[in-house]
Amino acid sequence: MSASLSQAVNYTISNANIMKGSRLYIDLFKIFQDLVATKSFSRAAKINFITQSAVSQQIAFLEDYLGKQLIIRGKNKFALTHEGEIFLRGCKEMLHI
Questions:
Q1: CB neighbour list of residue 73: distance below 8 Å, 6 or more residues apart
Q2: Which of 3-12, 31-40, 47-56, 85-94 has the lowest mean pLDDT?
């Protein structure tokens, strides 16, 4: 795991309870996990009762915040980058605490 990605994930996880709107960060972890599980923006949206556009925007926010691409997108193609795999492990740990 790159140092900056590790620091960003750890910072977000460790400060989630004290940050204003901390629920948003936990929701982002769940949305990311659901997206990976379904490999579909529309199915992840349905699971989380939001629009497909909202899923796309939230994943873009995560990637911008972390400064790393997490998902390789393409027509009929979905894959995690190395950083995406690392972030997914962090999400799973956070959601199963």
A1: none
A2: 3-12
Secondary structure of the chain: what % helix, strand, coil (to 5)?
65, 10, 25
SS3 73: strand
Contact 71, 38 (CB under 8 A): no
Is the CB of residue 80 less than 8 Å from the CB of residue 72?
yes
Give the model's pLDDT for residue 20: 46
Task: Please tell me the predicted confidence (pLDDT) of residue 6.
Answer: 60
Instruction: Read off the tokens for 46.
Output: 């349905």
Place of tokens 């790393």: 68
For the record, the structure tokens of 14 come out as 């460790």
